[in-house]
Amino acid sequence: MTGITSLPGYPVSRPRRLRLLPGLRDLVAEAGLEPRSLMLPVFVSERVAKPVEIESLPGHYYYPPRSQELVKLIQEALDLGVRSFLLFGYPRQKDEEASRAHARDGPVQEAIRSIRRELGYEPVIATDLCICNYHSSGHCGLPGKCRFGDCIDNDSTLELYRRIAVSQAEAGADIIAPSGMMDGQVKAIREALDDNGYWDTAIMAYSAKYASNFYGPFREVLDSAPKWGDRRSYQADPRNARDALVEVALDLQEGADIVMVKPALAYLDIIRLVKERFPYAPLAAYNVSGEYMMVELMARHGYADRRSLMMEVLYAIKRAGADIVITYHALEAARLVKGQ
Ligand code: PBG
């Protein structure tokens, strides 16, 4: 059998023919973007009484966990067709136990309840599960000792993650999203959820989460930069593609329902690789804060049209193979898609 590329006359010699009119370009466009597959990160803070704009993420706000403004934001997103949300909590204070992460009245728990009260199960609520924003160390795991000195202890952290997962599920989360990159975290959380009757709460694992410089603005949002050292002893090494394959395989074995690559734009090859090797798992890609910032800054300085640049980035992530895109541009993109 001859392949199509060996047929005479292929490929066409005038690719511009199908680029000449908007209708023609739309007709043959491969990547599409639907608001239903965008997930919006939302920051709920115990430190504010009304929405306060976040300096490092222009256009985004801290919302009080129990507020009409938060419900209004979710409603506005639903009206635009964006149905899923990733909640991050900013506690009144951080401590050695990350206690606000699993408190019954913690910021995320309260936010879920108030959204549910008003909007029921229409919004899909995912919760980030980590302690870097709740623990005084700023690390994603509990400080401990290794043979050579200070290090992040894996297994005691898992115990804490179990408690956080159960408390988020109890508050009504649809999806728990562990982002701390501890080994065995998906298994631990799956067990804890099942043991407590939450078999129907899903897990979206931040599987291939790289030790990236693109998280800078986010760490300012939640004051969650590590107070000592860095995250390279648990997040994946940017030089390695293999880490992504190993982590995704492990997370799926451990019971992840959705896997994730993060960041997105600088890791398009990883998205493609994971999609090809694990086609049966829904794949999310997190277009992170630094990537958002690059778009915003270029636009602000007049080097690009904001919306056009934003869409180019989102299409790239879709084209690479992401099913779900977690992005700070979710509402803006949905507006554009809806012609607003
Ligand atoms: C860590 C976490 C990070 C982000 C979300 N959860 C990264 C980190 O601080 O290592 C980054 C998201 C972004 O940059 O938009 N639990």
What does this structure look like?
The protein has about 350 residues and is an alpha/beta fold. It has a single domain, classed as Alpha-Beta Barrel (TIM Barrel). Helix content is about 40%, strand content about 20%. It is built from twelve helices and twelve strands. The strands form two sheets. Strands 1-4-5-8-9-10-11-12 form an eight-stranded parallel barrel, surrounded by nine helices. β2 and β3 form a beta hairpin. α2 packs across α4, α4 runs parallel beside α5 and α5 packs across α6. It is globular and about 65 Å long. The chain starts with about 20 loop residues before the first helix and ends with a helix. The model has no long low-confidence stretch (mean pLDDT about 95). The protein binds ligand PBG. Ligand PBG binds next to α7.
Structural class: alpha/beta
Biggest sheet, open or closed, and with what strands and sense? 8 strands, parallel, barrel
Quickly count the domains. Answer: 1
Q: Please state the average pLDDT score.
A: 96
- Shape verdict: globular
Trace the largest sheet across and list its strands: 1-4-5-8-9-10-11-12
**N- to C-terminal distance:** 49 Å
CATH architecture: Alpha-Beta Barrel
What percentage of residues falls in helices of 4 or more residues?
25-40%
Order of helices and strands: HEEEHEHHEEEHEHEHHEHEHHEH
